[in-house]
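tool_call: predict_structure(chain=1)
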Amino acid sequence: MSHHLDTPLAREKGQLFIDDLYVFAGDRSIVFVMDVNSNITEPNVQRGFHPKARYEFKLHFDGAEFETLTYRISFGDAGSDAHQAIHLHVLSGRDARDDSAAGERLLEGRTGEMVSGPGTRLWAGRIQDSFYIDLSLLGMVNSAVRNGTALDLSKWRPGKAVNSFAGTTVESIVLEVAHQHPQLRPGARIGVWGATKFPTETGGWRQINRAGHPMMWPIFWPDDTHFTNPANTRHPSEDFKAEAKHFGDLIAATVAASGTSDDPPGYGQTVARELFPDVLSYVVGTPATYSFAARNGRPLADNAPEAMLSLVVGTAVPSGLKPAVSKQYRSAKFPYVVAG
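tool_result:
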């Protein structure tokens, strides 16, 4: 549930904090993208992936409470050329949620280079960030949600919106799996979340960060820069019990003050049920969209911040930005991102 502005921890350990998670259709395939380590928090951020960490894509099937397929990516130390060895393992069944399970090794290669095997392609490296939002708009929504007040957009001028992330970079992991995979054929209904994990002194693994829906942390916990909230370390199966009432109450107070719902408590709980468990739902083989109309995976281009901000306050919140603002940072071909 991280985001681009986690400070001060993001400055110290940005390699472990997830900026964005994407799931969309490729060329007769499904594509997973995890971005970490944005340099918006620190222009001279340490490049590369943490060599002791694990980066995982966790997949649930047919609404299951727990994941039964995990793709685990790990990295070696950076060489003199700044590239790192990269390893991809897959874990299935109960092993998919077992940190002690080794899994099956699928691919090995180096960052900055395409690594491919039967039905699988992998790429990892520094890219130009295609995420876009004007952070001044986020601040207005933050104020309304935090204080339970009406959203005041009287000073907001969408026509003058500026992408606060223009020119920023992130480290990206792009995994593509062909539809021939027995569990990822077209029509399969999945839930996807990402996690970073770090070894403990006792030999186990500690979950550092997780990501599902975009904008969760900056909207609901904008001041928790030290991560005292346990949301990062828990499993999605615990989300609704832990946070649904809290989220619902925040949303209800905001829409009540704004007058955008005749039943603020009901609207708040409806949105909480939409957001929890915090995983991206996707029907394999279908066009991905994260918008007002539907949330089905998340493509690189969609204005997910606008959709999320509008959902939370119960009315349209025009961001003033369109996908074209970062089109130069996306590609129609693998790895779908633009190296930076």
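agent: Residues 9-329 form one domain. Proceeding to next step.
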